[in-house]
Design a protein that fits this description.
alpha+beta; 13% strand
């Protein structure tokens, strides 16, 4: 079984995901893996199996899609999703899941380099799927 098949199985095993969300995750992780095949998806696979998806709103989450690596929760702000490039926002969350560790995501410990992590993740998401939204969050 190749790495993407393991990832697809992890996605399918999560009962909190809708069929549409499962397909979106599979598509975005395939795009990521095609461009960065040397990056392991092991951590992402473990997170996806137990991840919760919760609806957010402007009081819970300011962004359309937010992933909290500490709680392993994906927040979807449906009001905001209609005003942004949802594919870009979900890719940003996918990259965050791939680079997540116990206390945060990306490089550095305990989010010391949070601004750099956000910038790099945003650039990677733009590179991988673009950003069709005119609104700059």
């Amino acid at each position: 079984m190749n790495e993407l098949d393991v990832t697809y199985s992890a996605i399918d095993a999560n009962e909190t995901f809708t069929d549409a969300l499962k397909e979106n995750f599979k598509e975005l992780l395939t795009i990521f893996h095609q461009n960065f095949a040397e990056v392991s998806l092991d951590g992402c696979n473990k997170r996806i199996k137990g991840m919760e998806v919760k609806r957010g709103n402007k009081y819970i989450t300011k962004d359309a899609v937010e992933y909290d690596p500490k709680k392993n929760v994906l927040y979807l702000n449906e009001e905001k999703l209609n005003t942004v490039d949802a594919k870009h926002e979900l890719m940003y969350a996918v990259i965050t899941m791939i680079s997540a560790y116990e206390h945060g995501f990306g490089i550095g410990e305990k989010e010391k380099l949070k601004v750099l992590n956000v910038g790099i993740t945003e650039m990677l998401a733009n590179f991988l799927v673009g950003n069709e939204c005119d609104e700059d969050e």
